[in-house]
Design brief:
18 strands, Oligo-1,6-glucosidase, domain 2, 13 helices, Immunoglobulin-like, TIM Barrel, alpha/beta, eight-stranded parallel β-sheet, about 525 residues, single chain, binds 1-deoxynojirimycin, binds calcium ion, five-stranded antiparallel β-sheet, 3 domains
Amino acid sequence: MYQVYLRSFADGNGDGIGDLSGLLARLPYIAALGVDAIWLNPWYPSPMADGGYDVADYRDIHPMFGTLAQARELVHRAHAMGIRVLIDIVPNHCSLEHPWFREALRGGPGGAARERFLFRPGRGVNGAEPPNDWQSRFGGAAWTRITEPDGTPGEWYLHLFDSSQPDWNWHHPKVQEEFEDILRFWFDLGVDGFRIDVADKLVKHPDLPDLAQWSHDDHPFSDRDEVHDIYRRWRQIADSYPGARTFVGEIWTPSVERLARYLRGDELHSAFDFSLLASPWDEAKMRQTIEEALAAHEAVGAAPTWVLSNHDVVRAVTRYGIGDGSMLRLSAASTRKGRVDLALGTRRARAIALLALALPGSAYVYQGEELGLSEVLDLPEDRREDPIFFRTGGDQLGRDGCRVPLPWSGEEEPFGFSEVDVSPWLPQPKEWGRLTVEAQERDPASMLNLYRRALHCRRDQRAEWGEEVRWLATPPGVLGFLRGDAFASLTNFSSEPVELPAHPQVLLLSEERAGSDLPPDATAWVTVT
Ligand code: NOJ
Ligand code: CA
């Protein structure tokens, strides 16, 4: 599955912002990668306060991305190439511009329109304190106080994310009905499925108690049992459509067992498993992570969904070039102190890509990972957009650095992303000239060619690989497993070369090797007899 961050994929109309016409023109690139489907981040009308995860209208396309007619054309043309299309649904919150939120503001306290959101009076003198102690995921309080229509300081509304993203009240039947109708709207248009944003946090404890009072179960807003009822209804809707329609949940749970509960037969088809992404570069920890994920998924009869990167975390080549590779967000301080070893990070990113693609289940590849793009750390402050940067006063760099437009061709900005001389919405590093698609197509050892070969090999051999992973007895520092009877993946996590046992054929190697050794920080795909 290939994740398309539309705004940064390809610009078709020369305004410096990626869009549907750019994506349509570049679909053959995606088909040539050898993926089965694309997932597009939100494309809805939005003030773009959080990259479009602040939705103003769930049934239309942002004019900067294109039109509904182009969305239809995308689905049609992708299907003709054998690529399925998943879109992003954002059910936890909308935007300040959503007509229902505006109506809620106008309606005044106690009005029916406010009940679709989570408005509460404040605490303390004159209600000047937030209604509870919850913190926004992006920093600061999870509540913002409004001014009532008569000009007085008024109620507070809940936003687990930015203040531009008011949370819906999922106890309200109208909210439930509305989202079911939105699903139907897009299924009718032909999309094959949805990635569900913040899927585990929709339902809040009706009393909105302080987090300080919470003891281990019955968390007031994360992973509450009631959320499963929503997905059972959604599943029925998906199943009522012809063809295979699918859901993938974005769920960050502390345990993979909790994650697997969303994958019971009548709920979601899949959920991102972020455990590999968060695992340090260490063969024992990686093995444990994979074993636990496989066992938890097997218990509910679901396939795991591996993720190595996305638009929310530090790009892999940078991540594996800092510390133990498990740092998903960067503080301004960490990048000043810690130097990034991009050469090491690139080797490890290549190795882990092969490891992940050798596992059973599905795998998501975030655009640009197949080019080995690094996190852009030095974006000028006035070009940054991520609310995380602003809500933490710049302590956290935020996620703009992994959202920089792709380099396609040429020697200078915009590297084929847009028309010549157009500045992309985020500036591209000069060094990306050697990472363009054009440059990497010429180089057999490039990251792009590694990904292409791996994805094609996986696709061709999948049937023979089966669903099982059998671990191999390997020297210390090496993680190896068999898929089926004739294929094995071996990763060297140590800093020394190890001898590769004699194999009839090496199918793919993430690094050049000297002699018969598997170099450090490398993966080999081999056939066995
Ligand atoms: C997860 C999305 O991936 C992220 O980009 C967004 O900021 C939050 N959810 C809030 O919608
Ligand atoms: Ca554009």
